[in-house]
């Protein structure tokens, strides 16, 4: 009978805790600017502080939390003017990537896009914002991958790290999910048809629509 190496078990538990923390942040239990208390989290999750500390490091790598020397780790907080500027820059990079993607797409990648779009439609119908967001991230990542531009991918990822919490909250309304996926569908069709100019235009418009959803959400608070 084979046994699972302890290191794999530990890594699995750490990633599980990181996912739990991420969902708590997305659900609003820990808000932007809140400090994460390792001791309290360890008690809550029935573990030692070591796995909590490693899980927090994973989240710091995604940009969802920010370590501050001599103060602790805090849920990332970005001002509204900074968020809007990041959206504008992200739109430019995503437009560039979509333009390039339209020149490189294959039949296999068309099938992958179709699967993601269907999955997001299903998630929107089920009002499952968590699943929708994860598939949304995959859709955008696939566009970046198709651009064959490592520099564009790096730039885009650096912007996305600062936006995860705020983008995720945009999809708490089913209407936002449906509108977002209609934009995805339009963008995909331009890429699939090899129409680089329209792909660039629709990609930029999609990001700017997300920017407007963010502003609408901020106005409601």
Can you tell me about this structure?
Helices cover 75% and strands 5% of the residues. The chain is built from 10 helices and 3 strands; from the N terminus they run αβααββααααααα. It has a 3-stranded antiparallel β-sheet with strand order 1-3-2. The longest helix is centred in the C-terminal third of the chain and has 25 residues, at 196-220.
List the helices and strands and how they pair.
Blueprint: H1 6-26, E1 35-36, H2 38-45, H3 49-62, E2 65-68, E3 72-75, H4 80-101, H5 107-125, H6 129-146, H7 150-161, H8 164-170, H9 174-192, H10 196-220
Antiparallel strand pairs: 1-3, 2-3
Helix pairs in contact: 1-3, 2-3, 4-6, 4-7, 4-10, 5-6, 5-9, 6-9, 8-10, 9-10
H/E element sequence: HEHHEEHHHHHHH
Query: What is the correct CATH architecture of the largest domain?
Result: Up-down Bundle
Return the CATH class of the largest domain. Mainly Alpha
Our measurement of the CA-to-CA distance between the termini, rounded to an integer number of angstroms, reads 56 Å
Which stretches of 5+ consecutive residues score pLDDT under 50? 1-7
Q: What does the overall shape look like?
A: globular
Separate helix tally: 10
* Overall radius of gyration: 19 Å
**For the residues shown, what is the average pLDDT?**
88
Total domain units: 2
Order of adjacent strands in the largest pleated sheet: 1-3-2
Query: CATH H-level name of the largest domain... which superfamily?
Result: GntR ligand-binding domain-like
**Helix/strand class:** mainly alpha
- Helix fraction, binned, reads over 70%
- Portion of residues in beta strands equals under 5%
The CATH topology of the largest domain: Four Helix Bundle (Hemerythrin (Met), subunit A)
Q: How is the biggest beta sheet arranged?
A: 3 strands, antiparallel
**Beta strands, count:** 3
């Amino acid at each position: 009978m084979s046994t699972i190496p302890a290191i794999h078990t530990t890594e699995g538990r750490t990633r599980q805790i990181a996912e739990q923390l991420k969902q708590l942040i997305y659900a609003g239990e820990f808000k932007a600017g809140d400090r994460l208390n390792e001791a309290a989290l360890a008690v809550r999750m029935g573990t030692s502080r070591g796995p909590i500390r490693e899980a927090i490091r994973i989240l710091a790598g995604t940009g969802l939390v920010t370590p501050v020397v001599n103060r602790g780790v805090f849920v990332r907080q970005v001002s509204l003017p900074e968020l809007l500027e990041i959206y504008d820059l992200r739109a430019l990079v995503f437009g560039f990537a979509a333009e390039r993607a339209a020149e490189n797409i294959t039949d296999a990648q068309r099938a992958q896009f179709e699967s993601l779009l269907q999955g997001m439609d299903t998630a929107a119908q089920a009002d499952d914002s968590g699943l929708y967001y994860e598939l949304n991230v995959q859709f955008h990542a696939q566009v970046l991958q198709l651009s064959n531009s490592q520099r564009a991918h790096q730039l885009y990822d650096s912007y996305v790290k600062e936006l995860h919490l705020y983008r995720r909250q945009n999809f708490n309304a089913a209407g936002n999910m449906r509108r977002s996926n209609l934009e995805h569908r339009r963008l995909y069709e331009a890429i699939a048809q090899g129409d680089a100019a329209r792909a660039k235009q629709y990609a930029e418009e999609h990001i700017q629509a997300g920017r407007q959803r963010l502003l609408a959400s901020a106005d409601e608070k």
